Amino acid sequence: MSDSLRELWLRGIAFNAAAPADVLIRLLDEAAGEAGLLMCEGRDLPDAVIDAALRHPVERIRCALARNLHVDPARFAPLASDPSGLVRACLAGGTRLQPRWVRPLPDDILVTFLTAQEGGEDGRVTEKDIVGELWSSRQVPLSFPRDMAGHDHPALRLYAAFQWQSLTAAQRHALLDDPAPAVREAARKGSRQLDPEAVEAELPPIGSRHAVSVLSTSALSPAVVEQCFADDEVHPLARNRHTPADALARLARHPDAEIRRLVATRPDLGPEAAELRQDPDEDVRMRARLQPSIRTWAEFQEVQKVVDHGPDCTCPITQPATEPSPDWFATCAVSEEPVLRRVAASWPGLSAELVETLAQHDDEEVRIRLACHHPLAPPHLLLDVFVTRPAHRPHLLTLPAFPRTGRAHLIDHPDPEVRALAAADPALPDPPVEDPDASVRRAAATNPSLSPEALETLLADPRTAEGAASNPALTVPRMHALLDHCLNGTATPPGAVQR
Question: What is the distance of C-alpha 266 from the center of its chain?
Fold first, then answer.
């Protein structure tokens, strides 16, 4: 047996959807090499395999499991306090795949990380290093600071105080009078973001990176606003929710169309909105038409997700801190404005009736957004978007509703990625195991319609061995026999026909 076949069989079995727990647990043996690591990180796993990986003595196995996107993250709670700081850091850092749907970690794991006093028994990373990984991973839900503002542990109230503008007025008041000095000091500093005079006194030089952040988020005095106009530094003002009404009116008449675009959909825009609906710039006019439908900042944010991006947008899909009402989304779904229908299609809570209507809409971007965002999007729509919009293919393949059959009609498609999808369809009478493209051959080898004799032939061919080993029609005894051959060096003939 060549090393190449050995690795191909191991990787194939690691991702065989029909492999039971006792087969997969064997791949946790160090002799399985990278296949065990790939399995722990890259697929859903039975509970018994998760349990074995959680207590596995090899750090790399636990690290790989910590990065798994397919397993319920609640199962990872023991890894948050793992003896290895690297394992903790892997869990805090999240998957390396950067999927569109960013799954938050459960609160108990976040609390463990944020209240830890050390970074693991090995001392290779600190608790601050791990928290830094956590912040950059987008695994902390936007609502978390507000949820933690009244927590018993001062470290969590301190974290909430650092996210001052996401808190309610009552929470801010409580933190300003917190029993912990560090929390009170953080709250005091946070409150200065909403004090125009304090912002003016502490403002860095206009034009610096730090100043842009302050000007985009803090309450501003008239003097600071005037200085921004004098220095032509008005982009931050256009984005700032605290920009005064008189300054907003001036921005709505700014000669730069980009500035007018930025303010055209703001919910606090005054009579200038009517002027912008007659703007010479088409994009400004379109945005201004939407403005009467936008009455809250939560609605504004949902519209911005659409107007600032095109049909091939693959930005992360995250749960916002606050959402518009279901009625608002329903109204958007029947709006005459295409952008508002796209907004509705992007909301996963839309009713089944409206989903059915939007799935047949003549606006392609409505259909694309529905396919990528809504759990009730019909399978045929997901398949259509897969074929026509390659940018969305990785995301669509992760969706539970993506069709696993009914794809055979695509077998002659010129795009090999589409042919590969069709090649695995069990309804396909003759899987194209000789296709010129390697990905199509590999997919064809996974087709469960293949006979045992054909499967054995494919197992012995390096071009198809990995796909054949991941074929769900492979019997469990044959999986064990291949593992015996790979891990123990037994003399099981690799070409023996399954019985």
Answer: 27
Contact 265, 288 (CB under 8 A): yes
Which token pair is 109?
Answer: 């794991």
Cα 13 to Cα 81, 97, 294, 402, 479, distances in angstroms: 31, 21, 52, 23, 7
φ/ψ (deg, to 5) at 266: -60, 135
d(CA 396, CA 181): 49
Location of structure tokens 């976040």: 110
CB neighbourhood size of 55 (10 A): 10
- Within 10 Å of residue 269's Cβ, how many Cβ atoms? 21
Q: Enumerate residues 6+ apart whose C-beta is below 8 A from 408.
A: 422, 425, 427, 428
Q: How many CB atoms lie within 10 A of CB 174?
A: 17
What does the pLDDT profile of the chain (499 residues) look like in tens digits?
467 899 999 999 999 999 999 999 999 999 999 999 999 999 999 999 999 999 999 999 999 999 999 999 999 999 999 999 999 999 999 998 888 988 899 999 999 999 999 999 988 999 999 999 999 898 999 899 999 999 999 999 999 999 999 999 999 999 999 999 999 999 999 999 999 999 999 999 998 999 999 999 999 999 999 999 999 999 999 999 999 999 999 999 999 999 999 999 999 999 999 999 999 999 999 999 999 999 999 999 999 999 999 999 999 998 888 999 999 999 999 999 999 999 999 999 999 999 999 999 999 999 999 999 999 999 999 999 999 999 999 999 999 999 999 999 999 999 999 999 999 999 998 999 999 999 999 999 999 999 999 999 999 999 999 999 999 999 999 999 999 999 988 755 555 444 3
Burial class (CB in 10 A: 0-12, 13-18, 19+), 467: buried
Q: Are 13 and 19 a contacting pair, CB within 8 Å?
A: yes
For residues 272 and 293, is the Cβ–Cβ distance under 8 A? no
Sign for the CA dihedral angle at 368, 372, 378, 380 comes to positive
The three-state secondary structure class of 451 is coil
Could you give the CA distance from residue 166 to residue 280 in angstroms, rounded to a whole number?
A: 37
Three-state DSSP class for 332?
helix
